[in-house]
């Protein structure tokens, strides 16, 4: 399977969750695990471009597919992806544990709705739990990310992310 | 919260999948996995075999058939949500699928999986029932059309035989006025109670072991819903009456 | 002191790595070569049972299993775990053992510990551990516990762990002579903090170094270190405890100890390999401390104007199965019922009772949401009885701005009595009502309001180390860890102001005993007051030292120098200065200087100074360690108000408008404080209408998942409008008060008040739900 553009050998243990595989076999610990029953959204990654819960997929299912994690949005040293930048500017994170999941959900949301309405923002982030921010700053961050995405030239626009399906 | 051990099978054709289902003891089909994998993680489901159908090509179509919409086994809920065909032919299904969990879940979850899982509080079984749709079950023995009215048997129970794979669901065009209304504690949660109106037909969910058809004039008649932390039987009946009034007032 | 950074909306310095997925949480740790062994606790399915036998042979035999421990395998297996904060009134304190071997007293209590190659295998093995339980009668709910038909602990009569009665004034006489009297009953169900990161521990024993390294998602690494050193007979210098990035805390991540905090280091030492344990969400619900369960009986006497003359509160607090945290929670509730109001005669009694449920300890708000609800609902009842406007009843009862310091006369959590340091409560209310504005049109809309005070910044102390490197960059460290409160940013603001440098040049480490070994912890809204002031103290010591060193070389009086723009300069003559980097070089009088400041420094080294290079009382390095120990708590306050719509048929709640006016003294960073408030209000909304832990009569937690424990999503949390007033605390040099818990405290009272008006039903309990409102509206 391809993760953030790099090919990785297959996972053999069929019951290993994709979330555990990413974190502990590939060392991509930016994908977090908050509930392992698909409610909290901390483990959200892009699977062939669309955000999914990595705790609800088996690693073997990702064989032959493309997975994108938060580490792939901006390489070390490069400026933040517009969504990441917007979360920073709007104080959209506190402890940072839910943040990668939110960021990946929002990347998916903006790929679907580049200029989201209030309702689309609400719906787009409604599958992720945050216990720190009370969501107000995250709503603002999505709005800001939409603006930044349109100002920032490709490839930082997030094109290629979240196109899928 | 890690899945217990199981044997994993990844057939590449429907025939192969049906052969596996026909020969394996205690096998479960893995499609979207948005209900099954949590159950595995909680170790509440412990199938000996998982038959993952996701690598079967050509099983994800959404197409027009017999004046309605056919949704194949691997069509994701998000695909149905975004389908212009569905919006045109069966806008009730579009409205309903938007109430299923959250977009990220719908990106992976399948319509057929929701039907086969048969959670009494879920929306799509009630929509199929309200519209009078059907599913197609395939096995080595051949295809079988199962009408919605006979498909749902009980809590998490359907008319599917262990060797059968639900390959397609068919939703008739939604006629005339339609509505789907539900009360859930949080946005995206399973409903405490819900109603689906398709013209003058009414189906209820969350108030019986299966979705049920009801009389719009007296929707709660004969119902004996169960109680839980968020709703007593009485509250469920109250909600059903309220939601029915609202669905038919529109 | 210049105040260049203090008070500014400085964007957080900790964001970048967290946003890139390069945060470092405990489960992310991989250190020391070997991949850590993974582990799992076997937990009791029974709420109360005698253990007849435990057979781990099948579990030990499973391939991939490295070790299985029961109590008998532990050198500390017979030791009761400590009580974090003992109290003389806690006459019957009880704590659990690391692994239960005789009796289990809540579902989820640990009985065995499995270490394996992976968590998957550890869970397989846990299922193979055979425990023969003999069920015992179960005590659930505080009322059942108080009735004491069955006992949680055989040797605790009446299930009462502690009892405390306090009286200020003469309640009996005042009640008797009051023109009006009223009795009220309030009930609060259990809730949970539920940080997004559950708990985790990683440990490694280095035999060559004889050193134990522990990563722990704790709110108090310094305490864990001290405890582990004692338990394992190691000098503290051989134990390192690091709270790396911690994914939210909100209270329950502070214990001494959770069993895993001993078992993981123990196993790592035994097995000679790193061992980790990462809690899953289900066990987090079962085994991490809860809060909020209380039942109150209230009597109030008041006059025709609605003024409270006497208040008597008798409440039961649900301790759960053990009292590892002492009785802080009911003490706080007892102290905080009067809130911002004058209660001339106040009597409060509590009983802390055992139940067969998960133990309780502070969760954001810590006994205060209850206290606020009791007082605010009582004032609403007075308003209703007298036909008075609800805000007007508050106005008539507020402690006035000229009455500070105000001594409440009841016990506070630090052992002193409650003394409010400063505040302006009437101003909070007026501002809130102004922000709330006119009532929206429509039916079934209610207005709610609630005011509160919060004792913050409790001692005993925190410390900080600040050092200017020879590069001119500044590093600072404190013992208390961050769980998202932006410590690295706000400490940097404080230090940057003292040293006249840019915030970006200050790097803060917190919660790592390798960098700062002393301290207490992050809880009780105390970080900003205690560690913030400690940072200020340490940084000022560094500034003074810099001035003295620079004074020699600038031929100036230290009093005439200032630190501005990364230099020490003569006031008014910025050209006459020396970079801090150079001062740092000079601060270490070695023969050879290193680093960026060398050049600037050496031009001065030709200037001889009589006496030895390090004179009496001088220490090398431009660094200092400072401590701050508060003389008493700082009292933050606030007022919330809202308009709420309730659907009269489905009982769905919609918050139409929610306003907050908040006073935490001088605000270091409004961005951070507003984030704290917004998050607190969201937790308050959860606690008011969504979240409750539901036990059945057998002591089984029926909703131990995020599917059923209804933490709000964005769709359930309204937009919030926030404004501040500032009444600086006279107790600390920075004038600050804590802000961490404030947001959550009055939300239940506000929502309850609003719903009562919207539906015309009496609201006396928390949390509410559509079902509860349906039943109330039919009664």
How is this fold's topology laid out?
The complex is a heterotrimer of chains A (165), B (250) and C (779).
Chain A: E1 2-3, E2 6-7, H1 18-25, E3 44-47, E4 50-53, E5 66-68, H2 82-89, H3 99-112, H4 118-125, H5 136-151
Parallel strand pairs in A: 1-5
Antiparallel strand pairs in A: 1-2, 3-4, 3-5
Chain B: E1 7-9, H1 14-23, E2 27-30, H2 36-41, E3 49-52, E4 62-65, E5 68-72, H3 77-82, H4 84-89, H5 91-97, H6 103-106, H7 111-117, H8 123-131, E6 134-139, E7 142-147, H9 148-151, E8 152-154, E9 157-158, E10 165-172, E11 178-184, E12 191-198, E13 201-205, E14 212-214, H10 233-249
Parallel strand pairs in B: 1-3, 2-3
Antiparallel strand pairs in B: 4-5, 5-10, 6-7, 6-10, 8-9, 11-12, 12-13, 13-14
Chain C: H1 15-19, E1 37-43, E2 49-55, H2 57-61, E3 65-69, E4 103-104, E5 110-116, H3 119-128, E6 130-135, H4 142-147, E7 160-168, H5 171-177, E8 180-188, E9 200-206, E10 211-216, H6 221-232, E11 239-242, H7 259-271, E12 275-278, H8 281-287, E13 294-302, E14 308-320, H9 328-336, E15 346-354, H10 368-386, H11 390-397, E16 406-411, E17 417-420, H12 425-436, E18 445-456, E19 462-468, E20 474-478, H13 487-499, E21 506-510, H14 527-554, E22 561-564, E23 567-570, E24 573-579, H15 580-586, H16 598-605, E25 623-628, E26 634-646, E27 653-663, H17 670-690, E28 721-724, H18 747-759, E29 765-766, H19 770-778
Parallel strand pairs in C: 1-12, 8-29, 10-11, 14-15, 20-21, 27-28
Antiparallel strand pairs in C: 1-5, 2-4, 2-6, 3-5, 7-15, 8-13, 9-10, 9-12, 13-14, 16-17, 18-26, 19-20, 19-25, 22-23, 23-24, 26-27
What does this structure look like?
The complex is a heterotrimer of chains A (165), B (250) and C (779). With 165 residues, chain A is α+β, with helices and mostly antiparallel strands. Chain A has 2 domains: 69 residues, Ubiquitin-like (UB roll); 70 residues, DNA polymerase, domain 1, CATH 1.10.150.120. Chain A contains 5 helices and 5 strands. Chain A is globular and about 45 Å long. Chain B is an alpha+beta fold and 250 residues long. Chain B has 3 domains: 46 residues, Uridine Diphospho-n-acetylenolpyruvylglucosamine Reductase, domain 2 (2-Layer Sandwich), CATH 3.30.43.10; 111 residues, Uridine Diphospho-n-acetylenolpyruvylglucosamine Reductase, domain 3; 72 residues, 2-Layer Sandwich (Enolase-like, domain 1). Chain B has a 5-stranded antiparallel sheet with strand order 4-5-10-6-7. In chain B, strands 11-12-13-14 form a 4-stranded antiparallel sheet, sandwiched between helices. In chain B, strand 4 and strand 5 form a beta hairpin. With 779 residues, chain C is of the alpha+beta class. Chain C folds into 3 domains: 193 residues, Aldehyde oxidase/xanthine dehydrogenase, a/b hammerhead (Aldehyde Oxidoreductase, domain 3, Alpha-Beta Complex); 241 residues, Aldehyde oxidase/xanthine dehydrogenase, molybdopterin binding domain (Aldehyde Oxidoreductase, domain 4); 169 residues, Aldehyde oxidase/xanthine dehydrogenase, molybdopterin binding domain (Aldehyde Oxidoreductase, domain 4), CATH 3.30.365. Chain C has a 7-stranded mixed sheet with strand order 3-5-1-12-9-10-11, sandwiched between helices. Chain C has a 6-stranded mixed sheet with strand order 7-15-14-13-8-29, sandwiched between helices. In chain C, strand 14, helix 9 and strand 15 form a beta-alpha-beta unit. In chain C, helix 9 packs parallel to helix 10 and helix 13 runs parallel beside helix 14. Chain C is globular and about 90 Å long. Chains A and B meet through strand 4 and helix 3 of A and helix 2 and helix 6 of B.
